[in-house]
Amino acid sequence: MLIKNDLHDFKENGKNSINFSTCSLLTGIYEVANADLAFVFNNINKNLLKLTMKTFFTAIIASAVLAGIAAAGTVNFSNFGSTWEIQASGTPISGGFVAVGTTGGSDFSDGAAAQATLLADWDQFGAATDFGGAAAFNLNGFFSGVASGDGGASTFSGKDIILVGGDGSGVADSAHLFVINTGATFEADAPLFSASVDANSGNALLGAAGGTPLAAGVAGAFQAAPTGAVIPEPGVSVLALFAAGFLALRRRR
């Protein structure tokens, strides 16, 4: 209606009569449009700010989580550098266990003494591995593992990295063991603790190089020491029980 009246005024009074009313309308439309655009852009900015802050905090949390994972120190242990095949009585060990850790014990004079020492005082660092597993390309007598943990913990910090392995699932049930002081030490992250040790690192506390390797192209063999742990054969056990029963019957007569 306002525009129609303005057009009428324009016909009656000349073109200049439209200026004020029409310009007022156009100005109003412009102001409303600007206000709407300002509202839209204001909301866009708020949403972008929320999204940015959310992304920022998500990134901080993710970084903290990843930093926690990455902060774990690592010890890589294998015998692929030395290529010494680990054997028990001349046979490459299959299965068994190999681990790194530390001990305050000192009696490694023979297998039995070493076993008792480790059972009394052995702190394992991270996870153990085995002989002849997938990580060792299924080669008996060979191992490869990565142990992760806090090298700065009071249990480990500044202490020798000891490499221990045997033909059982652990120290207690192994008939053969080897113990090597690698010469390396556990340390705190600065910024990240990492060490790599091998069968020929440092010096052997139990076990010795010797024998003939069965794998082709390797440097030599290393013999784990017998612990003296003997599991009696079923036939021997049955015979012993039979003999004891026979003696008991004779005494009754």
From the spread of the alpha carbons, the general shape counts as globular
Structural class: alpha+beta
What pattern of helices and strands is seen along the backbone? HHEEEEHEEEEEEEEH
* Average of the residue pLDDT scores: 79
How many helices? The count is: 4
E-strand count? 12
Question: Which spans have pLDDT < 50 for at least 5 consecutive residues?
Answer: 14-27, 56-70
Spatial extent as radius of gyration: 40 Å
Determine the oligomeric state from the structure: single chain
Domain unit count: 2
Q: Strand fraction band? A: 25-35%
Largest sheet: 9 strands, mixed
Helix content: 25-40%
The first-to-last residue Cα distance is: 136 Å
List keywords for this structure.
253 residues; 2 domains; nine-stranded mixed β-sheet; three-stranded mixed β-sheet; 4 helices; 37% helix; globular
List the helices and strands and how they pair.
Layout: H1 2-13, H2 19-70, E1 73-78, E2 84-88, E3 91-92, E4 95-102, H3 111-120, E5 123-131, E6 144-149, E7 160-166, E8 176-185, E9 194-197, E10 203-206, E11 208-209, E12 220-226, H4 234-252
What this model shows, in words?
- The protein is globular and about 95 Å long.
- The chain folds into two domains: 2-65; 74-234, no CATH class.
- The strands form two sheets. Strands 2, 3, 4, 5, 7, 8, 10, 11 and 12 form a nine-stranded mixed beta sheet that branches. A three-stranded mixed beta sheet has the order 6-1-9, with no helix packed on it.
- 37% of the residues lie in helices and 28% in strands.
- Mean pLDDT is 79; it is low at 14-27 and 56-70.
- It has helices at 2-13, 19-70, 111-120, 234-252; strands at 73-78, 84-88, 91-92, 95-102, 123-131, 144-149, 160-166, 176-185, 194-197, 203-206, 208-209, 220-226.
- By secondary structure, it is of the alpha+beta class.
- The protein starts with a helix and ends with a helix.
- Strand 2 and strand 3 form a beta hairpin.
